Structures are given as C-alpha cells and as structure tokens.
C-alpha cells in the first residue's frame, strides 16, 4: 500500500482514500451486473430480463443516488475553484449521460442494445470516477478552508449511509 501525507492532515488523506474505496466498491458492483448481462446475451437468453433489471437496480440504488449526492455536496464546492469549474460541468453532464444509458438498458427492445448501453455505463463510470479520484477529490481536500472529510460525511448522510464514512487508512 502506498503511504502518503496530505497537507491538511490525516483526516483529509483518509477522506481521499475512503472515496477511492467507495468508488471501487460501486465499480465492482456495477461490473458484476454488467458482466452478467453480457454473459446472458451471449449464452443464456432466458436470463437476459433479470440481468438487465439487476443493472438498472444497481444504478438506481447505488450509482445515481451517489451521483446526485456528489452534485449537491462536493461538486458545488469544487466548481468554485476556477481550475475545476469546467471539469465539474463536464462531470455533471456525465452523470446525465449515465442516467440516459440506464434508461436505454431499462427500455431496450433488443438485448444487444441493452448490453451495449450497460457496457457504456460501465466504461463511462470507470473514466468518471478516475477523474474524481485523481483530480476532483484531491483538489477539494487540498483547498484551504475546505474539508473533503466533512463534505463526504454530509454526502453519505444524504444517502442515509454511514457504511462509507471516511476511515483511517489501514497500516501495511
């Protein structure tokens, strides 16, 4: 495990690491469901409807609420920094694209279109969280007078979950 220090202390460093773990968990959950849909399209047509419902449910219960909470907590703060304003606008647009692709999965008449849209959600989400993890969250954590730790706690409160509250990094 890489050890690093944050200029604003261990709470902010822990918040950045916790956000990365949270994103990895969301990605893993989505990956499993998209892969099940792809496998169903390839080999098990009877499983396609349920696999598609699982992708949509994962997005509705986890990804989209997470995105909305970010838009209400972290994004407004990050957008006040001139270096990230345009990035935050693009990130918000990506949230909308993900939501639109979820609707394609939900209503696709042909399974190939549902699978293609689900794969689109997966790929877009992966690139999206990479930007959050490497640019947005570290910049917010490093900004004087801001606390990513506090913003994440508020975000998780919006989601009704303490499961992903920032925890100190495990020692190696």
Descriptive keywords:
172 residues, mainly alpha, disordered N terminus, disordered C terminus
Mean pLDDT: 86
Strand content: under 5%
Structural class: mainly alpha
Q: Tell me about the largest β-sheet.
A: none
Task: List the total number of helices.
Answer: 6
Radius of gyration of CA atoms, rounded to a whole number? 17 Å
Low-confidence stretches: 1-6, 162-172
Short description:
With 172 residues, the chain is an all-alpha fold. Helices cover 77% and strands 0% of the residues. The N terminus and C terminus are likely disordered.
What would you say this structure looks like, in words?
The protein is mainly alpha-helical. The protein contains six helices and no strands. Mean pLDDT is 86; it is low at 1-6 and 162-172.
Secondary-structure blueprint:
Layout: H1 10-43, H2 48-72, H3 74-79, H4 85-107, H5 111-142, H6 148-159
């Amino acid at each position: 495990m890489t050890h690093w220090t944050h200029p604003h202390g261990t709470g902010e460093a822990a918040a950045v690491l916790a956000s990365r773990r949270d994103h990895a968990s969301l990605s893993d959950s989505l990956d499993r469901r998209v892969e099940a849909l792809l496998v169903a399209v390839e080999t098990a047509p009877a499983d396609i409807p349920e696999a598609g419902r699982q992708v949509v449910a994962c997005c509705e219960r986890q990804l989209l609420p997470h995105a909305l909470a970010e838009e209400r907590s972290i994004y407004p703060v990050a957008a006040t920094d001139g270096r990230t304003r345009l990035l935050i606008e693009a990130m918000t647009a990506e949230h909308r694209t993900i939501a639109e692709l979820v609707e394609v999965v939900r209503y696709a008449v042909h399974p190939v279109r549902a699978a293609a849209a689900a794969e689109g959600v997966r790929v877009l989400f992966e690139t999206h969280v990479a930007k959050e993890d490497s640019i947005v969250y570290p910049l917010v954590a490093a900004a004087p007078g801001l606390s990513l730790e506090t913003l994440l706690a508020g975000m998780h409160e919006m989601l009704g979950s303490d499961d992903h509250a920032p925890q100190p990094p495990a020692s190696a």
